[in-house]
Amino acid sequence: MSLNDEALNEDKDTIEEGQENTNTMQKEQDMTQDDIREVDEQEDLINEEESAETAQIEKLQQEIEEMKALAQRTQADFMNYKKRVEKEKSELTVFANEKIVTEMLTIVDNFERALQSEKENSETAFYKGVELILKQLMDTLYKFGLEELDALNQDFDPNFHHAVMQEEADEPDKVIDVLQKGYKLKDKVIRPSMVKVSK
Predict the structure, then answer these.
(1) What is the pLDDT of residues 17-61, one digit of tens each?
(2) Is residue 97 part of a domain?
(3) Domain of residue 163, residue span
(4) Which of 147, 143, 160 is nearest to 197 (CA)?
(5) Between β-strands 146-148 and 183-185, what pairing exists: parallel, antiparallel or unpaired?
(6) Can you list the positions of beta strands (E) in the chain?
């Protein structure tokens, strides 16, 4: 082999090595680009999964907030129901007491009339006994919330007074005499006072 041939062979080997290196580099570059593409695709998948998970978390948080609001409304409704039932129960008790107390007022009136008719015998044991019974009866009724209406010398008020007579006087629309006491039970008038009114 001549020197030229040898040089040619060396050049050829160098070129082949260069081509192999170029091919290897090209393959590596292709693999790197494939890897980059694959990583990008994986990143996209991860981002999509994260977006889906974030959306799911937001949806669940919204559902939790809705459930909390529903629970609060339900609790408020229950508290309102409980208050309403207690109020109705209280009103029912007052209504039941009202009927009993109203019936008892007739007895009170009779005791007061009996004492009024025997005023000149106020020192007798009988009078004092009836007076004591009336006091005990009234104390019991007061415990249930009965209150006597103050009517004498008050301005006439049809909510509290029932005018059965009128009489000329200096000041009009004043209660000048109470013919029958009026009462209220727990702020409700159960019997207005029967009164004589000035005109």
Answers:
(1) 666 666 666 666 666 777 777 777 888 888 888 888 888 999 999
(2) no
(3) 146-198
(4) 160
(5) antiparallel
(6) 146-148, 161-167, 175-180, 183-185, 188-191, 193-198
Closest C-alpha to 144, from 93, 106, 89, 88: 93
Residue 21 confidence (pLDDT): 65
Distance of CA 199 to the CA centre of its chain: 50
Task: Report the CATH number that the domain containing residue 167 is assigned in CATH.
Answer: 2.30.22.10
Q: How many CB atoms lie within 10 A of CB 34?
A: 10
Residue for token pair 């919204």 = 62
Is there a domain that residue 190 lies in? yes
* Domains in the chain, number: 1
pTM of the predicted model, to two decimals?
A: 0.56
Q: Rounded to whole angstroms, how far apart are CA atoms 26 and 62? A: 53
Backbone angles phi, psi at 119, to 5 degrees: -60, -35
Q: In the structure encoding, which two tokens stand for residue 89, read together?
A: 């129960």
**Within-domain flag for 181:** yes
Structural domain contains residue 156 = yes
